[in-house]
Amino acid sequence: IMRPDDANIAGNVHGGTVLKMIEEAGAIISTRHCNSQAGEPCVAALARVERTDFLSPMCIGEVANVSAEITYTSKHSVEVQVNVLSENILTGAKKVTNKATLWYVPLSLKNVNKVVEVPPIQYARKEQEDEGKKRYEEQKLDRLETKQRNGDVIFPVINPEPHTVGYSQSSLIHLVGPSDCTLLGFVHGGVTMKLMDEVAGIVAARHCKTNIVTASVDAINFHEKIKKGSVITISGRMTFTSNKSMEIEVFVDADPFVDEPQERYRAVSAFFTYVSLSKEGKPLPVPQLV
Fold first, then answer.
1. Phi, psi at residue 184, to the nearest 5°?
2. CB 276 within 8 Å of CB 212
3. What are φ and ψ of residue 281, in 5° steps?
4. For residues 142 and 242, what is the distance between their CA atoms, to the nearest angstrom?
5. Same fold yes or no, 1-145 and 154-289
6. What is the tens place of the pLDDT at every residue in 153-212?
7. Which residue windows are coiled coil (predicted)?
8. In contact, 207 and 168? CB cutoff 8 Å
9. Residue 6 falls in the annotated catalytic set
């Protein structure tokens, strides 16, 4: 059930809260499947989230129903489709709020750098396997291209003008603790996405000075694992505005903090789209980026 601390001031559940629930469902079904046959014990780690649209808002007091299904497996990865429905328990009304596709890789409990083999699934039709393989190759290529262009850094701007990139850009620093992590001692993908959505929301709100909501998330790529004890910096900046929406780039940099010689590295990157709403929940024009 969605509570006040899950929502914004307008009563709509934060996009990051929904993304965290989606990731938890995906992690459960992937880990369960990867341990369904005799072999090395493992935990599924999130590698990528495909574009996710927020089809309808979820409100305080509604019940979230999250369902997950494995739709494709390769030798070392699992594709999971997740659907989110909200239910008004007073009226019984239900609506689909989100549909998402996630990719996981199983990591050995004995050696976190070892990716174990995934048990294959049975397909109802040969076409389903062929279509899944095509999606797998496409996301693999896109992840590689994204990683190669991932060198940008956000620098503070002194006395920025309103509606400029520097005016709304924001950062959040977070120390990774045990409650953020999996059994392997690395950050849950859902925790990272929730923090990213929070920063993107601050950027959007600073730009518009209105209530804002997450409209969609382009592919989120998890390039490197983030270890417990690391300090992560989540940075966001406005990259595009139309009359009705804002595109915000968000990336996560990790600093291994305790007994680690490794330098800061780019761990995650994504683009979020937000819309501006009135107090009545009606779409408002977005100020153009200068």
1. -85, -5
2. yes
3. 85, 15
4. 25
5. yes
6. 777 788 889 999 999 999 999 999 999 999 889 999 999 999 999 999 999 999 999 999
7. none
8. yes
9. no
The token pair that represents 67 in the structure block = 């369902």
Cα torsion through 16, 255, 153, 289, rounded to 10: 20
Kindly list the distances between the CA atom of residue 17 and the CA atoms of 3, 21, 24, 64, 228, in Å, as whole numbers in the listed order: 11, 6, 11, 11, 21
Active site residue 8: yes
pTM: 0.90
Contact present, 273 and 216 (Cβ < 8 Å): yes
Q: Which of 197, 211, 221, 253 is catalytic?
A: 197
Provide the CATH topology of domain 1-145.
Answer: Thiol Ester Dehydrase; Chain A (3.10.129)
Q: What is the pLDDT of residues 276-289, one digit of tens each?
A: 998 888 899 999 99
